[in-house]
Here is the input.
Amino acid sequence: MSERMLTMSEALREAMAIAMEERPEVFILGEDIGIYGGAFGVTGDLYHRFGSERVRDTPISELGIVGAAVGAALSGMRPIVEIQFSDFTAQAMDQIVNQAAKIHFMVGGGLHVPLVLRAAAGSGTGAAAQHSQSLEGWFANVPGLKVVIPSSPYEAKGLLLSAIDDPNPVIFMEHKLLYKIPGREAVPEGAYRIPLGVSRVLREGQDLTVVATGIMVSRAMAAADQLEKEGVFLTVIDPRTISPLDMGPIYASIEKTGRLMVVQEAPEHGGFLNEVIAKVATGPALGYLLAPVVRLAGMNIPIPYAPQLEKAAVPQVEDIVSRAREVVANWR
Amino acid sequence: MTTAVLKTGDPLASQENARYALLTMSRIRKLEEAVEDLFGRGMMHGTMHLSIGQEATATGVCMALEVSDQITSTHRGHGHCVAKGADLTSMIAELLGKESGYCHGRGGSMHIADVATGNLGANGIVGGGIPIAIGAALASKMLNRGTVAVSFFGDGAMNEGAFHEAANLAAIWKLPVILVCENNGYGMSSSTDLAFAINTLAERGLGYGIPGFTVDGNDVAAVYEATRIAVARAKAGEGPTLLEFVTYRWKGHSRSDKNLYRTKEEIDEWKKKDPILFFEHLVRDKNLLSDVEIAEVHAEATAQVIHAVNEAMKGVPADPAGLLAAVFKDLDSKEVSS
Ligand SMILES: Cc1ncc(C[n+]2csc(CCOP(=O)(O)OP(=O)(O)O)c2C)c(N)n1
Ligand SMILES: [Mg+2]
Here is the structure.
């Protein structure tokens, strides 16, 4: 086995190349994914390797692109749509929410939509309010969509291959700050698949269970490293897919730690993490909680531009450290 | 003094107008060169979309407008903002994330709006401003304001559903709106040849019953004249006009652009059609401005931009403390937006 450290862009590109080699019906469509190589460089050289039919540049027409992908998916193809910034899924919302998500159910099972929609999400690049949102919660609230949030290059490759295999529409939210940084883990060559709907326990510690998604996973891991030196030990769990959501490892961990903290970048109000908390409040692990649940999320504001404002708007490593330290110290 | 008072009129009608047109184009270019420099030195956050090479479009359009006329702008909006009369210091302060910036550091380059000069805002969403301009024109009509609304957008935006729905509304309601397409040949990397199956983008108006015209977007006087006619139609209740101004962006789409989709020769070819140089030739030929006067205009623009950068730098950084309170406008405020 190789010990390759890839960036998330490279890992995603590799997954798409493997899928296109495996299946002739897989193709990619999106804005500037051809010669330009994608707004974030994810498709890179795929245009040169697979040609303009299968790496299909489109005009700036998100609704049309996603709709065309839905129609192609209904008719034997497996499209991967790239939306440059997840904010522009808003343009395509009818096709995602009213069409793709519901067709299989509405028509009684005779049709299905094997479609993957990849989009760059999250803040941290100074692109401001219309280019920085974390909208995963919107999609998690629509039955019929699966929602994946890779937290590292290794996860991204294995999850994307599973998403492409899946016979249902899958929304794949890629945090743009993760694209260029190598992960903590090697990325195997060749195909491997990480099943959708299986949470991963990244580290185990007895004091606090931290459930985090996307970029917050690496921030939680960094916080855990720091706190370990102070003798505070965190368990970090990455659900990897928020629809479907695998609560089993979260319940099991709470039984051991008695404390829960949930971290997301999206605004707190109406955010997805509230679903995790609701499940804990109504599920088998409630009786094990020794402390109130800690909820750490983005402020309830649009993402601002200036770096100091942008940083203040979403949880940082220091926030996770201080809130974790506090809950462990105060609830013995 | 960095605020220009919007002047209306033909750039070639008088020495004063010629001076104003040249100064405006020069201010746009110098401002954007300064922006590029500040980015390059890591003093600005985010990304930037420069309109260098396209200055005649913003300038010519806005010279046909009154201060009270409204515009909606785009991600490539510095030129529109300056041409409509914005304050350079407040613009740069915004880009530097200062409290004194137009958006108090919350919006950045893609979200500058200037209520005082009728600028309803740049936009991070391609096509996002087009329906908004239609709404502004509707309000003008319903309130008998007698103003027009101009929507600036790129060639790429014409393939968004927003353009099509907005164009139809403007036509059926005969709204005082002007759809200004700055056709710079590319939407990011996709050329108009690949993104359209028609010859001119102005043809798109026909399907909606909107007259469309294709005009040299690097000729500020031609831009002015086309816009003047469209404004007159709008104010006479004859409805919308679609103006396609053919131009070119010299710089990459944004900071991350490697220009893989076009050739250096093509870029150089267009640099020969520099809208500023073109206008200088014209005003020299017509004896409106001498070489010395032309040089003075550029020096003035440079001085204004340097002054604006220096002033903007003095501002305090935007403060996170005010963020939560900034989301909603207070219910009890007596202020009425204009
Ligand atoms: C809805 C939407 N889709 C895509 C983008 C990404 N994007 C920003 S500018 C741009 C190109 C726009 O081209 P055009 O309208 O011709 O304007 P230009 O950049 O040439 O001025 C793209 C694809 C966006 N901001 N919004
Ligand atoms: Mg363009």
Observations:
- Chain A has twelve helices and twelve strands.
- The domain at 200-330 of chain A is CATH 3.40.50.920 (Rossmann fold).
- The longest strand of chain A covers residues 260-267.
- The interface with chain B takes residues 31-32, 34-37, 39, 41, 57-64, 87-88, 91, 125-131, 299-302, 304-310, 312-313 of chain A (CB under 8 Å).
